[in-house]
Each structure stands twice: as C-alpha cells, then as structure tokens.
Design a protein that fits this description.
Blueprint (H helix, E strand, L loop, with lengths): L13 E2 L1 E6 L5 E6 L2 E5 L2 E6 L4 H9 L1 E6 L5 H9 L8 H5 L3 E3 L6 E3 L4 E13 L2 E13 L12 H4 L2 E4 L4 E4 L18
Antiparallel strand pairs: 1-11, 2-3, 2-6, 4-5, 5-10, 6-9, 7-8, 9-10, 11-12
Length: about 190
C-alpha cells in the first residue's frame, strides 16, 4: 500500500555540491547547494535563491567552482549550507578549509574537497522565483587519492556525501553494484 506524502522535493540521492566564488574584494565565499546537477556533457545547473551572496558573486565574476563534498568534511559542508555569507563575513574562515585560485576560471578551488568542476557562466535566468545558473564545465580537477588505477575518479575512494530530503540527513555513497550500460543488456536480447 502507498501513502501520499504531499508535494515535496522528494528525489534521493541529491549530491552535496559546494559552490565557491570570489566577491568584489577577492574574498572566498562557499555555499552548499542542494539543488543542482549535471544538465549536459559539459554543463551543470544550479538553482539559487535570488538573495544569495554566491549568486551575486557568480554574476560579478561569470565563474564559479563546484566541488563534491565528502564524508571527511561533512561538518564543514553542512555549516556552509546553513550560514549566510550575507550575514557572517568570516563564514569560510571559520571552517578552517583552504582555497587556491583556479587557473581556468576566476573562482577558488577548495583544497579539501577532492573533486572540483571549474565553470564559466553560460546562462542565468529566473524561473518560479529561483535563479537558474547554467555553467560550462571547462575543467575537472581531482585529488590523486580518489583516482583508480586508470586515472578515473573512484566512487569508493571519493566517499561523496548525498543529501536525503526525506529525512534531512547525509549519507555516503561508494559501493559499486553493477556496470552501467551492461547490467541491463539481457533485456536487449528479448
């Protein structure tokens, strides 16, 4: 039997995306964005509230980075999604995380997050009271510790965290259960 839960953002898992920007004074700002995902082979889409400092910075610099939060930094990721850069001027500094300037875009890379997408703004538009930011991914950088023997990111080594909107909780991802585009191949033969 099914139970109706009403209208809610009920997609699981949701990636925990850490969006980093520079402001007009080159100060680092990082925000945990719950609503974002890949929307093309070289594009990522973010949904941001209009009042976000991160959005102001994205408009200013036409660039941002998106890092995948990992289990080792869940406290920092959660804090960066709770505190507002508009209210707390030392938000990033409080975490103890470190930033370096991307060589590809005018945005910071947070060293502790193991995988980072470096993005240029392709489009910004308003829809349903939210601002949609589409970024072109110009580079992906990864800490060697999360790469497999073929030089690809290993989900098992990454220990990325996912957000559960049903329970307002974080979970880790990493157990491989099947090979994509192969596990369902038997149905092609029918």
């Amino acid at each position: 039997m099914r139970k109706n839960l009403g209208s809610l953002p009920g997609v699981f898992p949701m990636p925990v995306l850490m969006v980093a920007t520079y402001d007009e004074n080159e100060k680092v700002d990082v925000m945990n964005v719950a609503w974002g995902n890949i929307c093309g082979m070289d594009k990522i889409a973010l949904n941001l509230a209009p009042e976000r400092k991160t959005l102001k910075n994205i408009r200013l610099k036409n660039a941002f980075t998106v890092s995948l939060a990992d289990e080792a930094h869940v406290k920092e990721a959660d804090f960066l999604g709770t505190a507002s850069g508009n209210v707390m001027s030392d938000k990033f500094e409080r975490t103890g995380l470190h930033a370096v300037r991307s060589s590809r875009v005018d945005a910071p890379i947070i060293e502790e997050f193991p995988v980072t997408l470096e993005c240029e703004v392709a489009e910004i538009r308003e829809s349903f009271g939210e601002i949609k930011v589409i970024g072109i991914i110009v580079n992906v950088s990864a800490d060697e510790k999360v790469l497999d023997e073929n030089g690809k990111v290993s989900a098992g080594k990454l220990n990325a965290i996912m957000f559960d909107q049903f329970q307002n909780s974080y979970y880790t991802v990493g157990k491989k259960i099947a090979d994509a585009w192969r596990v369902g191949a038997e149905f092609m033969k029918k």
